[in-house]
Design goal:
This protein is α+β, with helices and mostly antiparallel strands. The protein has helices spanning 13-18, 24-47, 54-69, 71-77, 122-129, 148-155, 169-178, 189-193, 196-203, 207-217, 263-266, 271-277, 308-334, 384-429, 435-451; strands spanning 106-107, 113-114, 158-160, 228-231, 257-261, 289-297, 348-353, 357-365, 371-380.
Length: 460
């Protein structure tokens, strides 16, 4: 600058050449490069956002809170939640990434960008969830899979039947016997109404609280000195679970409560016979045999809400396993030749319940292949009349198990023992003389010949 006047500097030859008019192709390339640079700067705003004003922060926080409130709806309605949820169920952090890996994109017929398919797709996740594993890649248990009832259970001939359908006569008679009134005293309507602990279950309770409450008031404990036995939260043996050989497996039942029998106290006259039958009578590692009653509890409240739909799935598999054990005994009975032998009642009961509702089911073997389960009655447990009626059904089921059903199994075992003894006697009567008896006769013949007088040449 000289006297306030700028002097123009001489331009280099290279600068002059760069500013020369470009051909149309070069102009197009430059234009595209400018657009890419603008797009890159646009993405940079998302990668490294500027500090917003206090008002923007407030609005941003409000939007985040609103999105978080919709999280459960997203989990419920999303068609493929495996893409949205981490395997450990932790929330995905909302911090914006500084950089993203380069990805190749394709476009659909409408020109919209389609990202590449992830290595683990939602459909594959559902398929693996429906196989024999107890939990899928998403961490969800098999009984929680939306297709578990329609695929896994149905593939193994286990079905939930409509309660509107007519029950078989024998099943209907058994249900009627559970409706009878009891002679033993129970709680009054006023006592149930004044039960504060029951009211708290209606407000909201954890699964352990629901279980503890009803253990003390409804479900009796198995007495070691008695024939009845109860196991809590123990897996049932895999050989008890019905299977058609399908690749879609039934989840191994782990009932919250399982009622059956103590071998030594319930069958003292049949211990050797039960040993000879083998493990097919045994339900779990505690040695509980011939189970007949399953209970599944679920939470309902801020500590976690359990699903009675899932509990019903658990009842379907668990009660079918109970029926399967009893049906193995009936299979042995059907091989008997006597007309005096009759099959034992293989039906079983199950309950899916929370602190506010209980659903009572009955399961039976409908034919040589199918296991059916149907709802008997549902109870609103915060209603005093429903609570008392629910208690009546439970206690009648327990009495049936320790009485009529147990006696029927004992008679069946007696029939099997008599049939076995008859077959053994018949087999002995048809047996030829044994090798020992033949050898004994041969020895006697040799001894007789050796003691006979000998002819000789001595006297003469």
């Amino acid at each position: 600058m000289n006297n306030g006047v700028f002097k123009a500097q001489p331009r280099s030859t290279k600068r002059q050449l760069d500013q020369s008019p470009a051909n149309p192709a070069k102009k197009a390339r430059l234009s595209n490069a400018d657009k890419l640079e603008q797009n890159a700067s646009f993405l940079d705003e998302f990668a490294d956002p500027f500090q917003p004003s206090p008002q923007a922060n407030t609005e941003h926080s409000f939007v985040l809170e609103w999105l978080e409130s919709l999280g459960s709806d997203r989990d419920t309605r999303c068609r493929s939640d495996s893409h949205l949820q981490a395997t450990d169920d932790n929330a995905i952090p909302r911090r914006l990434a500084r950089s993203a890996p380069a990805m190749s994109y394709t476009r659909d017929s409408d020109g919209f960008t389609v990202p590449p398919m992830p290595a683990s797709t939602g459909s594959r996740s559902r398929t693996s969830d429906a196989t024999g594993s107890s939990s899928g890649p998403s961490g969800r248990s098999l009984v929680e899979n939306p297709l578990y009832r329609d695929m896994n259970l149905a593939s193994n001939s286990i079905h939930l039947r409509s309660s509107r359908d007519r029950f078989p006569d024998q099943v209907a008679d058994l249900i009627d016997s559970m409706r009878r009134d009891r002679d033993s005293p129970g709680p009054t309507l006023d006592e149930v109404w004044e039960d504060k602990a029951l009211e708290e279950l209606g407000i909201g309770a954890a699964e352990s609280d629901v279980e503890k409450y009803f253990q003390n008031r409804i479900f009796p404990d198995g007495d070691r000195a008695n024939s009845l036995k109860r196991s809590d939260r123990l897996p049932m043996a895999k050989h008890t679970v019905p299977s058609t050989g399908s690749g879609l497996k039934v989840s191994t039942p782990v009932p919250d409560m399982l009622y059956g029998y103590n071998r030594q106290n319930a069958f003292p006259q049949h211990l050797a016979q039960l040993i000879s039958i083998g493990p097919e009578t045994v339900a779990n590692t505690q040695g509980l045999i011939y189970p007949f009653f399953i209970v599944e509890f679920k939470a309902d409240g801020p500590s976690g809400a359990g699903s009675l739909w899932v509990a019903t799935n658990q009842c379907l598999g668990g009660s079918a396993s109970c029926v399967n054990i009893a049906e193995k005994l009936n299979h042995r009975l059907r091989q008997c030749q006597s007309d005096m032998v009759h099959p034992t009642d293989s039906a079983s009961f199950s309950i899916a319940m929370s602190g506010t509702e209980a659903r009572l089911y009955i399961s039976w073997k409908h034919n040589e292949l199918d296991y059916y389960m149907a709802n008997v009655k549902s109870f609103l447990l915060q209603d005093a009349e429903h609570f008392i009626e629910f208690r009546k059904y439970v206690r009648n089921i327990i009495d049936w198990g320790r009485g009529e059903r147990l006696e029927g199994i004992r008679k069946s075992l007696d029939s099997l023992l008599e049939e076995s003894q008859k077959r053994s006697s018949a087999a002995k009567s048809r047996m030829p003389p044994s090798a020992d008896s033949a050898g004994s006769s041969s020895c006697k013949m040799r001894k007789t010949s050796s003691t006979a007088p000998k002819g000789g040449h001595g006297a003469g």
